[in-house]
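Blinded run. Sample ID left blank on purpose so nobody reads anything into the name before looking at the predicted structure. Input follows.
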Amino acid sequence: MTTKTRWVRLWATLAFFLTVGTVLFLFVYVFCKGAGALSWAFLTQSPQGTVLGTEGGIFPALVGSLLYTAIAVLFAALLGIATALYQVYYCPHRKAAEAIALVMHCMAGVPSIVMGLFGYSLLVLVLGWGKCLLAGGITQGIMILPFLEVRAVKAFQELDPALLESSLALGVSRGYTIRHLILPQARGALVSAMILGGCYAMGAAAPLIFTGAVLLSRVPTDLMQPAMALPYHLYTLLTQGTSPTHAYGTAFVMMLLVLVSNAAATFLTWRKLK
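Blinded prediction complete.
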């Protein structure tokens, strides 16, 4: 083993342990700070207290975040996967496919707060929806659309081209081949991308501040009602500065949700490669 190889191995090993150690430190630190608030009641009760959030729990915010994320993932998946299919299998010109990729990369660089202002201008004001669950979910869906589309393109491009060519040579239509061969083959990668996109959406507070999140509400029963959200609830607790324990407890629940979701995405990717 050469000296350069040893240095590269040492550098990679140190980077790995530094990354894992940082994540573990964050989880332990946030858990210790919020341990006093974590309980079953914290997960199942609504926020209470003279100053909102100093007592009670986060149940409406937890359910609201899951609903916002579900709408965002559904919206982004419908548009993102369809765009990726067109870009890989239907787009007749390479320049057009490159233009689509350029647009998606430019969208990925737009700050989330700008997405929130766009959603507020279009959905809340122009369309007249007001602040509601649907407006917040669609705004988050627009935010994660390029994230999901790029990964869908990668998933389709990694499939064996002979799969489509052989099917077409046998006289099977392109649409039937995509529905029954391409999509099932890429299902694991697509679901993983949807889960990771949902994690990205779940932690974004800026779009929801303008389009759907409120300080206090019950669990919504209609898509046109506003709803609480964990990141906005956490932001409120931190700006109030009256209940750091509840703030850390809320942060730990968010981190745990993201960790479990990432673990599920990793498992699906591992099954695909196995």
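Unblinding after everyone has recorded impressions. The chain has a mean pLDDT of 89.
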